[in-house]
Specification:
The complex is a heterodimer of chains A (113) and B (111). With 113 residues, chain A is mainly β. Chain A has strands at 4-7, 10-13, 19-25, 31-37, 44-50, 53-56, 64-67, 73-78, 87-94, 103-104, 108-112. In chain A, the strands form 2 sheets. In chain A, strands 2, 4, 5, 6, 9, 10 and 11 form a 7-stranded mixed beta sheet that branches. In chain B, 36% of the residues are buried.
Chain lengths: 113, 111
């Protein structure tokens, strides 16, 4: 019954060691988003895909990359995690952009040691 | 700066009381949405109000939108302990893709 699935739920990585977070959806939505949320803060949009069209936010660091091999899956790659990248990473989907509600996964809590 | 600013930042009430949260934004919007987030979890969509609507209801939720003041409010009536969560407003720009979340209101409902 799960609609947006994120794996793993908790990820620990070492400073500078590349890490990949994954998201999958069963909703067949066109748009997939990645947000970063630090403690007690609002989710901050990193980038989104509209089908295969990738849209990066202007202030998203180059350290963050994303891949969407098909409609169902989307990955967030952090090439060289720093201590400041420790956060909750949320994946969301929507049918067509922000005019529709977004469905969120449970998030992946990333710890950088 | 963020599109949506919310107040209060935190709200503590007794079960059965009403809770009101406010959101202000800065630019033209297509719609405004409210989400709930339980601690350490993803966000759950509560309600969407379009820019040409003034008020919307869903169960115990009532949302108002005043585009002239660029503000919205979320009212939760007859609150329950299970309503304890953070509540975020989110605005979608007229292009429709970029959704910006406010800082959120942390609601604590005491049983």
């Amino acid at each position: 019954d799960a609609m947006v699935i994120q794996n793993p739920r908790y990820q620990v990585t070492q400073f500078g060691k590349p890490v990949t977070l994954s998201c999958s959806q069963t909703l067949n939505h066109n748009v997939m988003y990645w947000y970063q949320q630090k403690s007690s803060q609002a989710p901050k949009l990193l980038f989104h895909y509209y089908d295969k069209d990738f849209n990066n936010e202007a202030d998203t660091p180059d350290n963050f990359q994303s891949r969407r091999p098909n409609t169902s899956f989307c990955f967030l790659d952090i090439r060289s995690p720093g201590l400041g990248d420790a956060a909750m990473y949320l994946c969301a989907t929507s049918r067509v952009g922000g005019i529709n509600e977004q469905y969120f996964g449970p998030g992946t809590r990333l710890t950088v040691t | 700066s963020q599109q949506g600013e919310e107040d209060p930042q935190a709200l503590s009430i007794q079960e059965g009381e009403n809770a009101t949260m406010n959101c202000s934004y800065k630019t033209s919007i297509n719609n405004l949405q409210w989400y709930r987030q339980n601690s350490g979890r993803g966000l759950v969509h509560l309600i969407l109000i379009r820019s040409n609507e003034r008020e919307k209801h869903s169960g115990r939720l009532r949302v108002t939108l005043d585009t002239s003041k660029k503000s919205s409010s979320l009212l939760i009536t007859a609150s329950r302990a299970a309503d304890t969560a953070s509540y975020f407003c989110a605005t979608a720009d007229t292009g429709g893709f970029k959704t910006i979340f406010g800082a959120g209101t942390r609601l604590f409902v005491k049983a």
